[in-house]
Amino acid sequence: MQVLIVVGDPNLGWLWKRHIERIGAQTAVVVVTSQDDAISYLRHHKSEIVVLDLVLSDGSAIAIADYAAYRHPAAKVIFVTNSSFFSDGSIFQHIPNACSFLPRDTPPGDLAAIVDHYGMDAR
Questions:
Q1: In 23-54, which positions are buried (b, 16+ CB within 10 angstroms) versus exposed (e)?
Q2: What whole-number percentage of the chain has pLDDT above 70?
Q3: H or E element: which one contains 50?
Q4: Contact 31, 43 (CB under 8 A)
Q5: What whole-number distance in Å separates Cα of residue 58 and Cα of residue 56?
Q6: Is the Cβ–Cβ distance between 64 and 52 less than 8 Å?
Q7: In Å, what is the CA distance from 2 to each residue of 40, 53, 69, 85, 108?
Q8: How does residue 38 score in pLDDT terms, banded at 50, 70 and 90?
Q9: Which pick of 27, 38, 83, 99 has the fewest CB atoms within 10 Å?
Q10: Whole-angstrom distance, CA of residue 4 vs CA of residue 44
Q11: Of 51-55, 81-85, 117-121, where does the model show the most confidence?
């Protein structure tokens, strides 16, 4: 399973990466911190799961999700945020590949379990 993490805080990204890698030997996880890096990665690599911080300091999470849906239609996006924006669940109406919407302070082990759950189809 290929997982792309897009988060502005690289330390948080590496924490999530380590927990996700523990879920399986066949899991490859890449961390990027900007829209440009995420688009570049998705242009050249397949990702079954994209863990995407909704509030990025460098770029648009929605643009990344849209590009992921175009380039890899089966890719699922797990949104993570510390904002109440989209807390009404409307993100699922706007982003067709969104599969989960979590608070940014979700325990890393729980995030890894959710990635594992949605990544089962990719195995």
A1: beeebebbbbbebebbbebbeeeebbbbbbbb
A2: 88
A3: strand 49-53
A4: no
A5: 5
A6: yes
A7: 15, 17, 15, 28, 18
A8: very high
A9: 83
A10: 12
A11: 51-55
First to last CA, the chain: 6
Per-residue model confidence (pLDDT) at position 27: 81
Instruction: Tell the burial category of 122 from Cβ atoms under 10 Å away from its Cβ (0-12, 13-18, 19+).
Output: middle
Q: How far is CA 99 from the centre of its chain?
A: 10
Residue 122: which pLDDT band, with cuts at 50, 70 and 90?
Answer: low
Residue pointed to by tokens 């919407």:
101
Q: How far apart are CA 106 and CA 50, in angstroms?
A: 16
84 or 49: which leads in pLDDT:
49
Q: Show the tokens assigned to 102.
A: 């979590």
Separation of alpha carbons 50 and 78, rounded Å: 6
